Amino acid sequence: MFFFLTVLQAIIAVMLIGVILMQKSDGGGLGVGGSPAGLMSARGAADFLTRFTAILAITFVVLSITLAALATGESTTRTIDTSLKRDVPVAPAPPVDPLANPAPAAAPAQAPTKP
Q1: Strand partners, 25
Q2: Are 67 and 9 in contact (CB under 8 A)?
């Protein structure tokens, strides 16, 4: 079901892009040509394309919400796959000899002098 709806959404997205590109804009574009008379006149085609664009856009949004709900419902709790985990031995820390490197003695604090 999820795969079918994903393919359907891709088809609707391509159709939506095509319908938007066919519409005539103020600055020119890929407007549909043809004679102004007849069933598919310039105004009739514009009304049809506008309605069809709205229908495709609404369908696209509804499918997006449906797919998001299905994806959330199908997700399961996932665990980390530890089948490829390698146990790397940790080298032991070298022994600490306190006499080898004694800590520097703290310098006595000097009282501030008044000038």
Answers
A1: 28
A2: yes
What pLDDT is stored for residue 107 in this prediction?
60
Which whole-number Å values give the CA distances from 74 to 51, 57, 58, in the listed order? Answer: 34, 26, 24
The answer to whether the beta carbons of residues 32 and 22 sit under 8 Å apart is yes
Q: What are phi and psi of 99, to 5 degrees?
A: -85, -20
| 112 vs 107: CA distance, rounded Å | 15
Q: Please report which confidence band the pLDDT of residue 74 belongs to, taking 50, 70 and 90 as the band edges.
A: low
The pTM (predicted TM-score) of the whole model is 0.50
User: What does the pLDDT average to over 28-47?
Assistant: 53
pLDDT of residue 84: 77
- List the alpha helices (DSSP H) in 23-93: 42-74
Element (H, E) at 12: helix 2-22
